[in-house]
Amino acid sequence: MKRVQFAVSPEIRVGGSVFAPADMVAIGQIVGADAQIELSTFQQLIVEMNEEKAEDAKKSLREKGLCVYETGSVVKNLSVCSFCKGAEIEGLMAARNLNDTIAGMAVPFTMRVGYTGCPNACGEPLVKDIGIVKRKETFEIYVGGQSKTMEAKTAELLVEQVKEEQLSSIVQSIITLYQTQGKKREKFFKFVERYGLENVRKELGLSS
């Protein structure tokens, strides 16, 4: 019997990507005893289960308020801070809207986007492919971070003074550029190096 995988994460909330005990109970009951569940480095649980039961399980998980995503070469769910200064100050709704816009987009290579609600950068956005830092009432967007291998590097500032209503569309346009101009299995930081930071700005009509 064929088995398939999908990812499960909680809704972004104060505290970050936090599963409630009821979430864990629901996941176990819905996917069943014959499923396997792996904790990934993407703030996700990877569920492997029988294909014939998977779609019903996904539907039930969503009905419980959980987020369900595809695995593979897609934009992963947003990696976030804990919103320790409160939802309004640190832009919880902006983070949720961004996640809803970009999570699951197909890309040449698995992509991680990080969000943090203040300059303390607890969500480690500067080592993500795309990093967002909220600074007072506007946002900074960084690109090209890399946390693994001997090529680890911090992301570079792409644009600052971004308004909340612009945030999701700009990040989506960055990913769309990567979709269309990136090579197969080319990591995003390699794409930025090859394409050029200034060319990314120019293509998207941004100023530094």
Automatic annotation (TrEMBL):
<protein>
    <submittedName>
        <fullName>NAD(P)/FAD-dependent oxidoreductase</fullName>
    </submittedName>
</protein>
<dbReference type="GO" id="GO:0020037">
    <property type="term" value="F:heme binding"/>
</dbReference>
<dbReference type="InterPro" id="IPR045854">
    <property type="entry name" value="NO2/SO3_Rdtase_4Fe4S_sf"/>
</dbReference>
<dbReference type="GO" id="GO:0000103">
    <property type="term" value="P:sulfate assimilation"/>
</dbReference>
<dbReference type="GO" id="GO:0009337">
    <property type="term" value="C:sulfite reductase complex (NADPH)"/>
</dbReference>
<feature type="domain" description="Nitrite/sulphite reductase 4Fe-4S">
    <location>
        <begin position="90"/>
        <end position="205"/>
    </location>
</feature>
<dbReference type="InterPro" id="IPR045169">
    <property type="entry name" value="NO2/SO3_Rdtase_4Fe4S_prot"/>
</dbReference>
<dbReference type="GO" id="GO:0046872">
    <property type="term" value="F:metal ion binding"/>
</dbReference>
<dbReference type="GO" id="GO:0051539">
    <property type="term" value="F:4 iron, 4 sulfur cluster binding"/>
</dbReference>
<keyword id="KW-0408">Iron</keyword>
<keyword id="KW-0411">Iron-sulfur</keyword>
<dbReference type="GO" id="GO:0016002">
    <property type="term" value="F:sulfite reductase activity"/>
</dbReference>
<keyword id="KW-0479">Metal-binding</keyword>
<dbReference type="GO" id="GO:0050311">
    <property type="term" value="F:sulfite reductase (ferredoxin) activity"/>
</dbReference>
<dbReference type="InterPro" id="IPR006067">
    <property type="entry name" value="NO2/SO3_Rdtase_4Fe4S_dom"/>
</dbReference>
<keyword id="KW-0004">4Fe-4S</keyword>
<dbReference type="Pfam" id="PF01077">
    <property type="entry name" value="NIR_SIR"/>
</dbReference>
<dbReference type="InterPro" id="IPR006066">
    <property type="entry name" value="NO2/SO3_Rdtase_FeS/sirohaem_BS"/>
</dbReference>
